[in-house]
Structure formats: C-alpha cells, structure tokens
Amino acid sequence: MNWRKNFHLDLSIIIPIILFAIIGITTIYSSESLLTEQNDFALKQLIWYTIGFITVFIVMIVGNQTILKYTWHLYGFFIFLLILLLFFGQPINNAKCWFLIPHIGVFQPSEFMKIILILTLSKMIHTFQEKHPQPTVKEEFLFLLKVAIVVLIPSLLTFLQPDTGVVLIYLLITFIMLFISGIRYRWFFLFFTICGIALAFILGLYFFQKELFIDIFGTSFFLRIDRLLDWSSKSGYQLEKGMTAIGAGGMFGYGYNQTPLYFPEPQTDFIFAVFASNFGFVGSILLFLLLLYFDLRIISLAFQSKKNTSKYIIAGIVAMLIYQQFQNIGMTYGILPITGITLPFISYGGSSLLSYMLMLGILLNIANENKKRIFS
Prior knowledge:
Layout: H1 11-31, H2 41-62, H3 64-69, H4 71-88, E1 90-92, E2 95-101, E3 105-107, H5 109-131, H6 137-159, H7 164-181, H8 186-208, H9 210-217, H10 219-230, H11 237-248, H12 271-304, H13 308-332, H14 350-375
Antiparallel strand pairs: 1-2, 2-3
Helix pairs in contact: 1-2, 1-12, 2-14, 4-5, 4-6, 5-6, 5-7, 5-13, 5-14, 6-7, 7-13, 8-9, 9-10, 11-12, 12-13
C-alpha cells in the first residue's frame, strides 16, 4: 500500500507548531536561570517534542475513524487511571495529579482525559443526531443526562486530586460542544440558572458562614476558593513578581535569558512572564498574533469539513485551547485567577505536550480529509 498518496501535512498548521516548539524550548531554557536546581527542562522538552511528532505521525497513520472506534475503551482506561491516582499518585504541592515513572518523569492522566472527553462527546452527539433527527424534549433530556454522567465521572475524580483548573476545562468543552450541536437553548438557560443558584449558595457560605462551609465542603475546597478569589487584590508573591518582570520588560524586553527577578514556576504556569520580560511588548504582540493565527486556522477547518463529528471535535479543541491561552496569559497579568493552567505548546510538561500533539494529529487528519474531498 502506498500510504504517501493519502498522507498530507498541512503546513499552515505544522509551521505554527514548529514556531511554538522553538519559542517554548528557548523560553524554558531562559527560565532555568531562575531555578535553584538545574533540571534540564529545555532538553527534556525537546525530547518530548520529538516523541510528540512521532505521536502525530502514528495518529495520522491510524486515522480518526479508528481512534473514534475505540473511544469508549480509551475513556474507560483513563477513568481507571484517574481512580488509581487517588491511591498511588505522586503528591506534588499537596495534589495527586501525577504518576511517578522512574527514569522518565511524571505522567498526568487528566491532560489526556481532555482530548478523550472531546472524542467521546463528539461521538455521543453524532450518534444521538443520527438516531433522533428531530428529537423531542424528553429525548434531549435523556441524552443530556447521559452526557452529564460521562462528564461528571472524570470531573469528580479530577476535582478530588485536586485540580480545579482541569475540571473547568472539562465543563467548558462540554458546554461549547453541546451549544453548537443544535440542542434547544432552554437547557442552557436552565443550566446557568442552576449554576447561579449553586454559586450564590457556595459564595454565601464562604463569605458569611466560613465554619459551616468547611464542615460541608472541607478545608481543601475552602483554600481553593480562597486562592481563586485572592487574584482580585493582585496579592501573592508569584503574581507580584511575575507582573513586575513583565512590566520591567518594556517595549523590547531585557533580552534573551535576561529575566530580571525570580518568581515560582517560571517554566510552567508563568512561562509567559519569562517570555515577556525577555522580549517585551513587541515580542508579546508577535506571540499573540501567532496564537491567533493558529486558532483561526483550526476554526477554518470546521467550516471546511462536511463531517459533523469533525466539527464537534474542532469545537472542543478550540474551546480548550482558547480558554487555556486566555487563562494562562490573563493570570500572569493579574486579570484572571491563578489556576495552574499552562500555556499550550509553550509551557514545560511532557503529559500536556503529548496530549496536544495527539490533538494535532487528529486535526491534521481532519485537514487531510478536507483536502481529499476538495480535490476528489
């Protein structure tokens, strides 16, 4: 079989990824000067990118149809891993989000769960629409109940790690994918009403009945809410130092590998602060434009695709990427809460990068399908 005839690389997607790799690895290397211990993060990220591109190649050879065929198997397997984490996870900063793999590093199942949840929901929505072209209210309600169960299971397991930031991504992915699926808008009104009442109840207890809040939800959840709300005061050592580094960068920055002061997690959560301090306002604008181009290119794939499943997959991916981009950059500027969300393709992390490269392979398959349809 001559697989090359059916194997095309969309350079409009690949080139931004290569630029992200260069920016990410060099910025991670710059961040190492702020760390007390040398961990060769830049070298490790280069290795992860190499493995990531191999993953992209494998995904393109396997094809999206085969991956979707085994989506429920993947879902069940990673639910099992999330359960195991609660018992055997490696505690880091009071969270059990990772498995420790000797001589390799840590593995974070929730990063892959984001992609698997997108695939699972896209398959569920497509199957429901095929069976019910004009669904009744009851049929939609039962479908949404199934979706809620599928999303609630990984959300609860991830929340218990605890990793509130990833749970928010799960929920956002679900909301966007359901919104574009064409179900009745009354469900969204009902959803926001229930969430509004629940949020008002939780915040009411937090502000006026702290002891009762802790009795009901526990100290861990109280501290997480406390951390989320602290951002509005612009307080906190990490935030203050990160914002100072960004502001000190000025128009053109201090220059590569010249971050002026220390702040925690420069290679992950606050990677943008390192980049901005090195390359200033001009460099930051160029990075924004590159991110915007990449996002718009992915969105254009949805308009080109004739497959509803592909459109739902792209909707989930775009929701995940844009949220993480806004959240990560916004929290370094102090305009959004610090949630530990990393900047896709830029921040250090083997599990997160491999999950994004898995996503990239799926997107390239969709682009390949669109191209073959146009020229067939």
